[in-house]
Amino acid sequence: MVTYQVQDVSPDMSFLEMLDLLNEDLTIKGEEPVAFDHDCREGICGMCGVVINGTAHGRGESPVPTTTCQLHMRSFEDGATIDVEPWRAGPFPVIKDLAVDRSAFDRIIQAGGFISANTGAAPEAHAAPVGKLQADRAFDAATCIGCGACVAACPNSSAMLFTAAKITHLAMLPQGQPERYSRIKTMIAVHDEEGFGGCTNIGECAEVCPKQIPFDTISQLNRDLIASLFKKDGK
Amino acid sequence: MTTTTKPAAPTTAKTASTDFFEVGADIKDAKAPAGAIEQKWSKRKFEAKLVNPSNRRKLTVIIVGTGLAGGAAAASLGEAGYNVLNFCYQDSPRRAHSIAAQGGINAAKNYRNDNDSTFRLFYDTVKGGDYRARETNVYRLAEVSANIIDQCVAQGVPFAREYGGLLDNRSFGGVQVQRTFYARGQTGQQLLIGAYQALERQVAAGTVKMHTRHEMLEIIIVDGRARGIITRDMVTGAIETHFADAVVLATGGYGNVFFLSTNAMGCNVTANWRAHRKGAYFGNPCYTQIHPTCIPVHGETQSKLTLMSESLRNDGRIWVPKNAADCEKDPRQIAEADRDYYLERIYPAFGNLVPRDIASRQAKNMCDEGRGVGPAVKEFDENGNERFVRRGVYLDFAEAIGRLTKEGVASRYGNLFDMYAQITGEDPYETPMRIYPAVHYTMGGLWVDYDLSSNVPGLYVTGEANFSDHGANRLGASALMQGLADGYFVLPNTINDYLAGASALPKVDASHPAAVEALDSVKDRIAKLLAVNGNRTVDSFHKELGNIMWEYCGMYRTEAGLIKAIGLIQKLRESFWKDVKVSGVNEDFNQTLERAGRVVDFMELGELMCVDALHRRESCGGHFRAESQTEDGEALRHDDEYAYVAAWEYTGTAQAPILHKEPLEYEFIELKQRSYK
Q1: 8 A C-beta contact, residue B372 and residue B189
Q2: What is the dihedral of CA B593, B594, B597, B598, to 10 degrees?
Q3: Amino acid A233: pLDDT
Q4: Domain for residue B546, yes or no?
Q5: B83-87 and B105-106: which strand pairing?
C-alpha cells in the first residue's frame, strides 16, 4: 500500500479524473503514474473497476449503483483517505497496480454464450414474436457489462452472476432455445476450469452490480442446469 | 502516382487558403456498376470474384478493431471460413466504443406503415448529409438495413417490443417516419454484444485468433499492397509483426483530436493515420459531428463528455430564457412567457427534431448571445483573451411528465435520467436538464471505393473509420446501421473479389525489407518518445491541441481562424518533441507511452483537418464556414465548386498535402438547399 496526497479535488470530478490528477502530478515529479483500466467513462464498456474502501466500484452510500467511472468525488468527505485496490480473485491475475486480466470472462462466453446464427441465415425479424415481459427479462439480464465486480465482491470468487446473466438472457428468447440445455453445461464447465468458485447464495454480487443484474438469474441458471441433466440434447 | 497542377507553395508566410495544399488528379470510384440504383449492389455482388470454400482457410485477413464494423466483419469472415486475425486495444473485444451508442439503429422495414421505404431512407440520409455523400454507397446502406435487424434478432439482441411481441420503433432527428429500432437507451451495447458473441463463437471454432490489449502502430506495404501490421503488446511492450493477404481497419473515429469528446478515452486515429502516411487517402477530415445533447463541461479537469441520447428530443423541449437577466434564476421560477423555445420558434416543421448540426449551432448561438444557462466556464476568445461564458441550454421534460406521467417518462428514458443525476448531482425529473453540444462522431475517414477498399490495394476500411456514407452530417441512429452494414453484409461480399487473386502474390515474412523498415520505424518512434524526458505531461499537450481545434475548427470556422490554428498546431508539435515527459519504459504496461504515441498522430491529423476546413470555402452539414451562410444564418453550400469528396494524399509532416477530388454525381436525388422549417 502506498499513500498519495491529491490536491485541488473538486466535488464534480469523477473518481477517475481524481486519479488522472494524481498521475499528472506523479509524472511531473518524475514518479511512475498509477496504472488503471478505463475507457468509455460513461459506465457502459465495463473496462474500469477497482475496490474502493472495501466495496467493488466503491458505491458506498450512494443509492444508485454505479461503475467506478461514474462515481464522483462529491460522494467523499473533504480530506478523506480512500483505500483503492484492484479486483482480487484468483482467475483475475493483477497485470499492474490496479489493472487485472479478465480474459477468463471471454472464455466463458466462447464456451456457449451465443446463439449460433451465421450472418445471412436469419429469418425475417417478425417471424418469431417475443412477449414483452419475456423480452424485458431477457433485456434485464443482457445489460451485464462484464466488469467483474460480482467476482471481486464474492467471498468464493464465483462468476455465477456473470454466467447466469448470459444464460438467462438467451434462455428467455425463442432464438435461444435450440442450444439452451447444451450451452449451460459447457459454460459452467469452463467457469469451473477457470478457477471461479461455486455460488453459496451470499448475494454480494448483485449488491455491487452496477447494472443491477437480478440475483434470481442464478435461480434460473440452477433450474436450467438441473433440467439439462434430463435432456438428451445436452451433451 | 499523381500529377500536380499547381505550383508549389511560396516560401513566404502563408496567407491564402490555397498556400496550404496542392491539387492533384481527380479520382473516381470505379467499382459501383452502371445502371439503375436498385440493381447496383446485386450486380456488383454477382460480378465480384469468389473464393472457393476450401481455399478460404488458406487466406488470412487482419481486422483491426472489434466494434460493430470490426467485430461483425471478423465473425462473418470467420464463419465464411477465412483465417482471421483480430486486434483490439481493450482487454476484451466487448469493450469497443460502439457499446456506448444509446438511441437506436435505423432500418427501412416500414413496420409503422408510415410510408417508409429503402428509397426514403436513402433520400433522408443523403439530404441529412447535406448532399456530400456518395449516392451509390448510401443506397446500398439503406438496402441492407432491413437484413441487419433480422440478423440481430436471430442472435438474440433484445430489442424493445410491444405487448403483441413485435418490435417497437421510435423516431429520430431529421426524419418524419418511425424507423428506429432500439433497446432502451443501450442499443449500441446490445448490438455489440450480439456481434461479440458471434465473434467469440468463431474464436472457439478456431477461425478467428483474437489479440486483445494490442495496438496497431504501423502498416506493412509490400509492392504497393497492404500485407501486414506492426503491433505493440500493451502488457509486455513486445513489438510484433503480423502478416496477411488483406488488412481491414475498423478502428472508429478520431473525435478525440478535440481532447474532450463523447468518445472513449482510448479512441485514437493512429491506425488510420499510419495507413494515411503510407499512402491511403484521407477523405473529408474536417467533417465532424457536434452532438447537441451532451452534459456540459464541469471544469478544467474534465476528461471526457457524456452524451445524452438524441431520443430525448422526442419528448424534451429545448429552451433558454428570453432575457439574459434570467439566466441565473432557478429555471422553474422563469415564467412560460419568458422562455424561448428557440428550435420550435425557428423551425416550426421539425421543432426539437431538427438534424444534429442545426440543433448544435443554434445552442451555440443562444449562448454566444449571452442567454446560456448553468455555470460560466473559462474560455479564450479569438485574440487569446480569457472570458467566462455560460455554456448550456435547458432540455425540459415538465410538459412530457404532465402528458405521460413521471413513470411514463421513466419507462422511456429512465437510464438516461439516472445517468444525468449521477454525473451532475441534479434530479432531472424535478429541474430541467442542462445540455450543450460536444464532439461526437467524425464523418470523415480514410477514402474508400464502393467495395470499401482504400486506394491502397488490399487495405479495406469499414465503419466510422471510413468516410463513405454520411456526407457532411450523420443522422441519428445511422452509425450503428453503417457499422453493421459494413461488417455483416458489405465487406464479406466485396473483399472476396480481392482475395480471389491474393493467393498468387509472393509470400512475405519478417525478413522482407518492408517489414523490417516498418518494425524499425515503430521501435525508433518509441525510443524517441521515451528519450525526450521534458517537463510537460502528454495530457497537457493533448488538452492544448483540443482547445485549438475546438476554438478554430469546431462549430464555427473562419479563414483567419483556421490559418491561425495551423500555425499554433505546428508550434505545439515542435514543443511536444522538446518538452514532453513520457515516464517508464517500453517493456511494461505503460499507459503514458500509449497516450503519447496517439497524441503525436492527433497533432498531424489536426493540421490536416484545418487544411481541409480551410480549403472548403462553403458551409455544409457539420462544417460551418462563417463566410458562407444564408441571410438566416443557415449553412450555405456551393455545389458548383464543392460537390466533391476531398481525398488528401500525405506528402510529409508539415508539408502541403495533395488534394484529390472525387466529384459527387447525383443521378437519383436532386440537390437542394436543406430546409427543416
Answers
A1: no
A2: -150
A3: 59
A4: yes
A5: unpaired
ipTM here:
0.98
Is the pLDDT assigned to residue B1 strictly greater than 50? Answer: no
Burial B49-67 (b: 16+ CB within 10 A, else e): eebeeeebeebbbbbbbbb
The full set of domains in chain A, from first to last, is 15-85 (3.10.20), 102-229 (1.10.1060.10)
Q: Do B99 and A45 touch (CB under 8 A)?
A: yes
Average pLDDT score, chain A: 95
Whether B533 and B618 share a structural domain: yes
Task: Using the structure block, give the residue that is written with the C-alpha cell 483491426.
Answer: B64
Beta carbons of B158 and A72 less than 8 Å apart: no
Contact (Cβ atoms closer than 8 angstroms) between residue B599 and residue B542: yes
HEC assignment per residue over B226-282: EEEEEEEECCCCCEEEEECCEEEECCCCCHHHHCCCCCCCCCCCHHHHHHHHCCCCE
Give the residue on A whose Cα is nearest the Cα of B111: A126
Helices and strands, counts by H and E, chain B? 17, 22
Sign for the CA dihedral angle at B278, B282, B286, B291 comes to: negative
Residue B482 lies in a domain: no
The whole domain housing B371 covers 291-437
The reply to whether A63 touches chain B by the CB within 8 Å rule is no
pTM, full prediction? 0.96
pLDDT tens-digit series, residues B278-293? 999 999 999 999 999 9
Substitution target in A14, A42, A126 with the highest count of B β-carbons within 10 Å is A42
Give the number of domains in chain B.
Answer: 2
Distance CA A6, CA A53 (A): 17
Across the beta sheet with B288-294, what order do the strands follow?
Answer: B288-294, B433-442, B393-396, B317-321, B339-340
Q: Provide the number of CB pairs (under 8 Å) joining chain A to chain B.
A: 216
Using CA atoms, how far apart are residues A104 and A85, in angstroms rounded to an integer? 20
